[in-house]
TrEMBL record:
UniProt keyword Transport, yes or no: yes
Bilayer topology: Peripheral membrane protein
Recorded family membership: Belongs to the ABC transporter superfamily.
Domain annotation ABC transporter: ranges: 14-258
Name of the protein described by the UniProt record: Amino acid ABC transporter ATP-binding protein
Molecular function terms from GO: ATP binding
PROSITE patterns hit by this protein: ABC_TRANSPORTER_1, ABC_TRANSPORTER_2
UniProt KW keywords: Amino-acid transport, ATP-binding, Cell membrane, Membrane, Nucleotide-binding, Transport
Lineage: Bacteria, Pseudomonadati, Pseudomonadota, Gammaproteobacteria, Enterobacterales
Location of this chain's protein in the cell: Cell inner membrane
Chief location category: membrane
Length: 262
């Protein structure tokens, strides 16, 4: 019998339980377990190919775990629980479940045929969460947070990469997610545009949304993270409070990685 292991009154509690994922028989995640508390900021570090993106994508079921499970606020991602049995969700129900887990891609993925405002109000209206009027009001508040209130009626292609990424963040926030996932949100940006996106993410952290971020921006990680997860070859080799990991990494691979980037 599967049962939710922990309960929390705050939203955005993530539990990863013994998750494995294979691609063509090769493991990308090997028995990964992790708990992320509501309102915390977790940064996932590790060399290329270590499974960071795969882990992030299993959190909102963009990838389905081959073994184990992910729970967000006691809900099984990709499944519904009936009479103590898990049943796989159909695509439509899965999309509904994903509403609560915002995902920001490396390459922004804004809808090119919609203005900035339309990009932000689309999902909350389609999912019936807000009336058009409220969605627009909400969108302006979000644009204020990411510092782009004057761009509401602009087309994505008229914006810089950094501005597009900030719009993508506002768009994800428009669904009031409990959790926001970021996969290398600044890696496609010119260096001078990185800071504005990182500042927008820092602002979110101060609002109390649970954030999980894959990034190679070590200075930013150090500044924003409550906890660090360090991955090597599909496994979490070290995890703990940011200060501890940065000041006193225990695992030789973490030590090696940090000595190269700090
Ligand atoms: P990271 O984000 O840390 O660079 P990934 O999670 O993207 O690592 O990849 C982990 C491993 O899984 C790598 O060996 C990668 O080649 C493999 N992998 C990831 N996605 C796929 C896929 N869609 N098909 C086949 N192999 C994949
Ligand atoms: Mg990746």
């Amino acid at each position: 019998m599967l049962q939710a292991k922990t309960a929390s009154s705050q939203k955005g509690h993530i539990l990863v339980h013994e998750v494995s994922k294979y691609y063509q028989g090769l493991p990308a995640l090997k028995n990964v377990s992790l708990e992320i508390l509501p309102g915390t900021v977790t940064v996932i570090l590790g060399p290329s190919g270590s499974g960071k993106s795969t882990l992030l994508r299993t959190l909102n079921c963009l990838e389905k775990a081959d073994k184990g499970f992910v729970q967000i606020d006691n809900e099984f991602m990709g499944y519904t629980l009936k009479n103590n049995k898990l049943y796989e969700l159909k695509e439509k129900e899965l999309l509904k479940q994903r509403i609560h887990v915002g995902y920001v891609f490396q390459n922004f993925n804004l809808f090119p045929h919609m203005t900035v405002l339309e990009n932000i109000i689309e999902a909350p209206i389609v999912h019936g969460l807000l009336t058009r009027e409220d969605a627009i009001k909400n969108a302006y508040e979000l644009l204020e947070i990411v510092g782009l209130k004057d761009k509401a009626n602009t087309w994505p292609k008229q914006l810089s990469g950094g501005q597009q990424q900030r719009i993508a963040i506002a768009r994800a926030l428009a669904l009031s997610p409990k959790v926001m996932l970021f996969d290398e949100p600044t890696s496609a940006l010119d260096p001078e545009l990185v800071k504005e996106v990182l500042n927008a993410i820092k602002k979110l952290a101060s609002l109390g949304t649970t954030l999980v971020i894959v990034t190679h921006e070590i200075g930013f990680a150090r500044e924003i993270a409550d906890n660090i997860v360090f991955m090597v070859e599909g496994e979490i080799v070290e995890t703990g409070p940011s200060d501890t990991i940065f000041q006193n990494p225990k695992h030789p691979r973490t030590q090696q990685f940090l000595s190269q980037v700090l």
